[in-house]
Amino acid sequence: IRRWKTKARFKTTVLRKIQVENRHEILRHPSSDKCQKINFPPASSGKQWEDLSSKIVLKIDSLLGKSTLEHKLATFGDIVYQTCLDTFGTKQYQTKCPPQRSRRQLEMDTLRKQKRKLKKQIKAASSEETNGLLVIWRQLKARHSALSRGESARKKRSQTRKNQIRFIRDPFQFARQLFQQHKSGTLTVDREELETHLKKTYSDPIREIPLEETTGLVWPAAPRIKFASKPPSLQEVIAVINKARAKSASGPNGVPYLLYKDAPTFSRSYIKYYELHGKTSRSVKSGWLQTGCISPKSKIRKE
């Protein structure tokens, strides 16, 4: 049990470590809202990933050199992001063309304009011309109503088809969204009041006081396997990295886990710094900062 808990805790530590280093570019420049997304190659192009790995390792060795461990850990994520940005450039998004309107929708727009124009003519027309204009207006209205019913039926069929696809893809998520409240709104509380509420909710003032002995507790048997106190091996670190999704990014800079998977040279360089960090038990100041988003639980609440 202890071995399993240690591995689970180690997995969380490694993933958080990667996230902190990749997030350092954002934390060091708080004025920039978002890093530019990098145009990474597909996962199948192994040659480009190997070249990128070698380039990153060479740049890390040349720039960091014999600097302190804290400086290496603090600038590691910046060097990785900047090297990837210089190699592949930013991702260019194609502007989406507006959807083409169907003949029914175009005809409905034309009929709507004609009806509005006839309304103005009816108000300004004499009593002899009003009856004829009303007949024309009723014909346009009947045609517009028929087209509107057809358009409503089309939208209903399209929405039904989308709901069926969503339900087949994930039934539990679809059912949960039917009864889930909208999480939006604007917080009106002060910063001091909010921090006081968070501290009161998530802090424990008596955490350092030892618990009293409770009678009736069943003590588990002694562990049969000796607790492993040595640092994690290379295979364990690689196994933790391989469990993460390849194209998912560990931080706002957009560097995916694929870089750690398909670039063995870079992974070994990262693991070397991680082992040194584990032996010295020092923390980097960039890892102290955290980002978060606080929003009301429902649409109408403001607290």
From TrEMBL:
One example GO MF annotation: RNA-directed DNA polymerase activity
Protein name: Reverse transcriptase
Coiled-coil residue spans: 101-128
Domain of life: Eukaryota
Keywords noted in UniProt: Coiled coil, Nucleotidyltransferase, RNA-directed DNA polymerase, Transferase
